[in-house]
């Protein structure tokens, strides 16, 4: 059995061509997996979508969105990679890209086309086994989650309160761990790095009493307090630990999209009309 250890997870801000993003350089060196949480800066969109809007469903000019996505792929030197941007529906569907047994194999064009169509049917998580397949999910308060295995496979997950409540991140971890068991053993999840990107913080996320009660019931008082407010990131940490992930390997950027609306898009902070920043990942070697 192979023993593989990832560097401790860390998110630092850097500039990649015209794109500022939070990434983990040591992870890239160790695995070839480039991860990035983008900001509002570096694109061509205007108005409330200014400027690096990556969402195509928000009434922004689609030509601008395509250019913004092209810039992201160019910044991370993967312009030739098929880009998968699923139709996010606040569900718990996780789509797998590639053969779990062949992680060094790129997707064939016909396979990539079929998977892109499946992604448009609705998915809020992508588990990527294939080499040189890029995943992009879009956010404006919900929690971006990127999970990386020492083997190089990874997942990108969109977790709003429904996704946290329905354990979509755990579903992605279990999918990866099942594929990794031959190399990493039964406790494969304990070797994973998990990165939590910018999202609405507990100080700004007031919910209804029913949602608050569900979080208290499932995760305890530590992630639901003040009668109405919930801490999505803490709910994620609790469920990921229960699934075998080490809390020491969970890195939270700890930036609130509402409080830092000048850097990130926020649905609540902008009254419902805004762009979407992204969680992006690709393995190029």
Description of the structure:
- With 285 residues, the protein is an alpha+beta fold.
- The protein has a single domain, classed as CNF1/YfiH-like putative cysteine hydrolases (4-Layer Sandwich).
- The chain contains seven helices and 14 strands.
- The protein has helices spanning 25-31, 62-75, 109-120, 161-165, 168-184, 209-219, 232-242; strands spanning 12-16, 19-23, 33-38, 83-84, 94-97, 125-128, 134-139, 143-148, 154-159, 193-196, 224-225, 229-230, 250-252, 277-283.
- The protein has a six-stranded mixed β-sheet with strand order 1-2-3-14-7-4. A six-stranded mixed β-sheet has the order 5-6-9-8-10-13, sandwiched between helices.
- β1 and β2 (19-23) form a beta hairpin.
- It is globular and about 50 Å long.
Q: Could you name the key traits of this structure?
A:
CNF1/YfiH-like putative cysteine hydrolases, 22% strand, 14 strands, alpha+beta
Write the layout of secondary structure elements.
Elements: E1 12-16, E2 19-23, H1 25-31, E3 33-38, H2 62-75, E4 83-84, E5 94-97, H3 109-120, E6 125-128, E7 134-139, E8 143-148, E9 154-159, H4 161-165, H5 168-184, E10 193-196, H6 209-219, E11 224-225, E12 229-230, H7 232-242, E13 250-252, E14 277-283
Parallel strand pairs: 4-7, 5-6, 10-13
Antiparallel strand pairs: 1-2, 2-3, 3-14, 6-9, 7-14, 8-9, 8-10, 11-12
Ranges with pLDDT <50 over ≥5 residues? none
Domain module tally: 1
N to C succession of SSEs: EEHEHEEHEEEEHHEHEEHEE
- Straight-line distance between termini: 22 Å
Beta strand %: 15-25%
> What's the story with the biggest beta sheet?
6 strands, mixed
Broad CATH class? Alpha Beta
The rounded Rg comes to: 18 Å
Task: Describe the global form.
Answer: globular
Count of discrete alpha- or pi-helical segments spanning 4 or more residues: 7
Please tally the β strands and state the result.
14
Q: What is the architecture at the second tier of CATH?
A: 4-Layer Sandwich
């Amino acid at each position: 059995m192979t023993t593989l250890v990832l560097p401790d997870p860390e998110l630092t801000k850097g500039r990649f061509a015209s794109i500022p993003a939070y990434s983990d350089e040591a992870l890239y060196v160790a695995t070839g997996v480039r991860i990035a949480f983008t900001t509002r800066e570096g694109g061509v969109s205007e108005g409330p979508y200014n400027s690096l809007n990556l969402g195509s469903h928000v009434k922004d000019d689609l030509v601008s969105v395509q250019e913004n996505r092209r810039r992201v792929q160019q910044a991370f030197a993967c312009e030739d990679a098929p880009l998968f941007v699923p139709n996010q529906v606040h569900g718990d569907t996780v789509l797998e890209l590639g053969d779990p047994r062949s992680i060094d194999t790129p997707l064939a064009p016909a396979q990539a086309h079929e998977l892109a169509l499946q992604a448009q049917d609705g998915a809020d998580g992508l588990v990527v086994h294939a080499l040189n397949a890029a995943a992009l999910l879009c956010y404006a308060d919900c929690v971006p989650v990127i999970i990386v295995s020492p083997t190089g496979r990874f997942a990108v997950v969109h977790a709003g309160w429904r996704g946290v409540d329905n354990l979509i991140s755990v579903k992605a971890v279990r999918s990866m761990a099942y594929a990794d068991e031959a190399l990493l053993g039964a406790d494969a999840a304990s070797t994973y790095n998990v990165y939590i990107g910018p999202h609405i913080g507990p100080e700004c996320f007031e919910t209804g009493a029913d949602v608050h009660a569900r979080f208290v019931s499932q995760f305890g008082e530590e992630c639901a307090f003040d009668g109405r407010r919930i801490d999505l990131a803490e709910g994620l940490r609790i469920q990921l630990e229960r699934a075998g992930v080490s809390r020491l390997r969970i890195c939270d950027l700890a930036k609130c999209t509402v409080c830092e609306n000048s850097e990130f898009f926020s649905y609540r902070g902008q009254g419902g009309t805004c762009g979407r920043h992204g969680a992006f990942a690709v393995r190029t070697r």
